[in-house]
Amino acid sequence: MLIIESIADMRQFVRQAWAAGKTVGLVPTMGALHEGHLTLMRQACAACDVVVASIFVNPIQFGPKEDFAAYPRDLASDSEKAAAAGVAAIFHPSVAEMYPTGFSTYVRVEGITEKLCGRSRPGHFQGVTTVVNKLFHIVQPDKAFFGQKDAQQVLVLQRMVQDLNMDVSLEVVPIVREADGLAKSSRNVYLSPEERQAALVLSRSLAKAQQAVAAGECDVAVLRELVTEEIAAQPLATVDYVELYGYPGLEDIDRLSGRALLALAVKIGRTRLIDNCILEAKACF
Amino acid sequence: MLIIESIADMRQFVRQAWAAGKTVGLVPTMGALHEGHLTLMRQACAACDVVVASIFVNPIQFGPKEDFAAYPRDLASDSEKAAAAGVAAIFHPSVAEMYPTGFSTYVRVEGITEKLCGRSRPGHFQGVTTVVNKLFHIVQPDKAFFGQKDAQQVLVLQRMVQDLNMDVSLEVVPIVREADGLAKSSRNVYLSPEERQAALVLSRSLAKAQQAVAAGECDVAVLRELVTEEIAAQPLATVDYVELYGYPGLEDIDRLSGRALLALAVKIGRTRLIDNCILEAKACF
Question: Which residues bind ATP (chains A, B) (predicted)?
Answer without folding.
Answer: 30-37, 147-150, 176, 184-187
